[in-house]
User: Which sequence fits this backbone?
């Protein structure tokens, strides 16, 4: 009897030890991983900053100076025309700067109705994500895709017309494939990618 | 019993190979005559500096990334100024991974390989000229005007460039559509601004021969003093010691002041001079040989360029001139009229240069030089190849200088449209002229036999979009 108890106790101890190994390993050797922020939270946080900066530039700079006070215009060829860069260009310039400094993430502003055809969705996930955020108000799209042999966590966030400047510019641009945008409409999406391998 | 024959041979092989290998390695690392290392004829853009191997091969173990960084080190600022249409960041974006798999445009060396003369085309491009097709297959459906065009025609004059499209984008074409060949006002950019700047640096009392402060041992003859006194330097209060002595050793007389002296006051001109083909060997960081161990290698820079080493036709009697500031600007008579045209023709002997002196541009230049026409109306070699460049400081203040990098706007030649041609000519006239090689060889005497259609296409597309929009149809 006592022999069986000892055997059972030993087995339980052994199993318990085996079960504890991954936890201990994570605690002692993989503390950084254990405390790592989930990648979805990372993209959500990145997007919060991007969306805030984008809204501030669009509303407090472009819409105020161009549409309300009419002191300067915003133009695609802002250098030649001594104008402000368009909000989409500001966003893209930021993305290019980030791309010069890190490969830990990348982002772009895309649309199912792009003024510049280069900003139409290219990957299957971009198409799916942009369609999802356009049809599901207030919801984000998350997925995983493999591009160039690398795996990415891909998040798509709706890009909404936050000011009259967005609507008037896109509806009036000769290259815009859609001319019936209204304030608060989803005009496209911010796609953020984080490599996962 | 002697040493076995095989062992003898091994020892002999080692005794020969190791020293030879060390010598080669030392030459690779430190310098010397490295011409035996060249694996193929260097492009015209780099042949002058081909023996300063580490200008591009900055690491012995570097691959494409190292070479790319070296390209950007010299050409990065130029690409940024040109609003590069295909920056690296466009291709590091994962969404373009499929495109990169076909054409890795993240690195300069994908399209511009050095030492590959058999596949090198204009501007050092080593890819076939249908490279645009790799990413832009849909262009015919997006732009009906482009249907049926050859895939090799994208970069034809007046259409598209890979990097610099500042004079070719659609809005620019539309904005300048319908301009006359000869604009109402025909003056070079910044002519008045440069004149006001020149006046600003004149001192209240210009220096004269009696003011010369050269020590008696180095006093020049009367002709030198007269040249200097009539020169802009004396007018600006720059005395003999201003150029013939340096800050580090003010007592030491510099018999022949070099580029370093000029740089003290003319930093932009000297910088751009060392960016172009005339002065690229004088870039501060270029070394023919670097300091080596045991005094075996002594640091030395590249020798100044000579016309004999040029790949363009040059005059035989100028073959051994060396190219520094004084080549075009004589030491004591800073004659900009001479420097702007005759100095060029002193060495260059190609059809374009020779034809200049029978061209309408030269007629205008002579009239301005003779005081018969307003400043800025003459067109010299420098007007087109060394145009005035405006610089704006972060506080908004303006300055301007004549770029001394004569390659800056040379190729693709549409780069010249904005900085030069558009000051006097309509865009259509300029694009047509720049697309006609024979007219260029004749130095623009006559009219172009080539017509570039890009403005008409842009105009047609503008009308079509307006019509569709007026009818409420999707674009």
Assistant:
């Amino acid at each position: 009897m006592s022999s069986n108890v000892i055997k059972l106790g030993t087995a339980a101890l052994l199993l318990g030890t085996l079960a504890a190994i991954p936890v201990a390993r994570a605690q002692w050797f993989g503390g950084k991983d254990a405390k790592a922020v989930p990648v979805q939270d990372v993209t959500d946080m990145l997007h919060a900053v991007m969306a805030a900066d984008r809204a501030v530039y669009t509303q407090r700079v472009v819409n105020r100076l161009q549409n309300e006070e009419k002191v300067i215009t915003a133009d695609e060829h802002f250098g030649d025309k001594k104008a402000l860069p368009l909000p989409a260009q500001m966003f893209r310039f930021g993305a290019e700067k980030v791309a010069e400094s890190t490969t830990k993430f990348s982002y772009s502003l895309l649309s199912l109705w792009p003024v510049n055809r280069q900003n139409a969705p290219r990957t299957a996930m971009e198409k799916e994500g942009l369609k999802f955020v356009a049809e599901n108000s207030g919801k984000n799209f998350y997925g995983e895709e493999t591009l160039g042999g690398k795996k990415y966590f891909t998040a798509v966030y709706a890009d909404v017309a936050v000011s009259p400047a967005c609507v008037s510019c896109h509806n009036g641009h000769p290259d815009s494939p859609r001319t019936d945008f209204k304030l608060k409409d989803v005009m496209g999406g911010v796609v953020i990618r984080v490599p996962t391998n | 019993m002697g040493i076995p024959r095989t062992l003898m041979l091994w020892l002999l092989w080692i005794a020969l190979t190791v020293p030879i290998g060390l010598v080669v390695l030392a030459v690779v690392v430190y310098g010397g005559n490295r011409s035996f290392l060249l694996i193929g004829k260097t492009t015209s853009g780099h042949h002058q500096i081909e023996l300063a191997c580490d200008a591009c091969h900055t690491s012995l173990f570097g691959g494409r990334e190292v070479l790319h960084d070296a390209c950007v080190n010299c050409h990065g600022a130029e690409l940024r100024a040109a609003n590069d249409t295909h920056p690296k960041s466009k291709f590091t974006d994962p969404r373009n991974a499929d495109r990169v798999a076909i054409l890795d445009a993240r690195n300069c060396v994908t399209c511009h390989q050095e030492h590959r003369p058999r596949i090198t085309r204009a501007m050092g491009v080593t890819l076939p000229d249908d490279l645009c097709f790799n990413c832009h297959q849909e262009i015919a459906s997006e732009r009906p005007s482009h249907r049926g065009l050859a895939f090799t025609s994208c970069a034809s004059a007046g259409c598209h460039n890979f990097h610099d499209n500042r004079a070719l984008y659609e809005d620019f074409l539309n904005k300048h559509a319908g301009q006359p060949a000869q604009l109402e006002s025909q003056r070079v950019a910044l002519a008045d601004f440069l004149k006001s700047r020149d006046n600003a640096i004149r001192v209240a009392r210009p220096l004269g021969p009696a003011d010369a402060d050269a020590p008696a041992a180095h006093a020049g003859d009367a002709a030198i003093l007269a040249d200097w006194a009539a020169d802009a330097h004396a007018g600006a209060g720059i005395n003999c010691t201003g150029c013939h002595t340096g800050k580090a050793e003010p007592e030491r007389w510099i018999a022949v002041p070099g580029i370093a002296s000029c740089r003290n006051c003319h930093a932009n001109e000297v910088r751009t001079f060392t960016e172009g083909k005339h002065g690229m060997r004088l870039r501060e960081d270029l070394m023919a040989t670097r300091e080596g161990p045991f005094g075996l290698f002594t640091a030395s820079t590249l020798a100044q360029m000579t016309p004999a080493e040029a790949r363009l036709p040059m005059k035989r009697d100028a073959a051994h001139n060396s190219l520094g500031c004084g080549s075009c600007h004589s030491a004591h008579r800073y004659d900009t009229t001479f420097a702007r045209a005759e100095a060029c023709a002193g060495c260059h002997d190609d059809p374009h240069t020779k034809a200049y002196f029978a061209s309408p541009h030269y007629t205008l230049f002579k009239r301005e030089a003779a005081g018969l026409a307003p400043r800025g109306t003459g067109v010299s070699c420098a007007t087109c190849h060394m145009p005035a460049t405006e610089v704006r400081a972060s506080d908004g203040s303006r300055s301007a200088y004549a770029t001394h990098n004569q390659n800056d706007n040379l190729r693709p030649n549409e780069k010249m449209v904005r900085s030069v041609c558009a000051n006097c000519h309509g865009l259509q006239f300029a694009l047509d002229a720049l697309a006609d090689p024979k007219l260029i060889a004749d130095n623009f005497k006559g009219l172009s036999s080539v017509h570039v259609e890009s403005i008409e296409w842009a105009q047609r597309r503008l009308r079509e979009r307006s019509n569709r929009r007026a009818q409420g149809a999707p674009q």
Observations:
- Residues 191-200+210-279+324-424 of chain B form one domain.
- Strands of chain B lie at 388-392, 398-402.
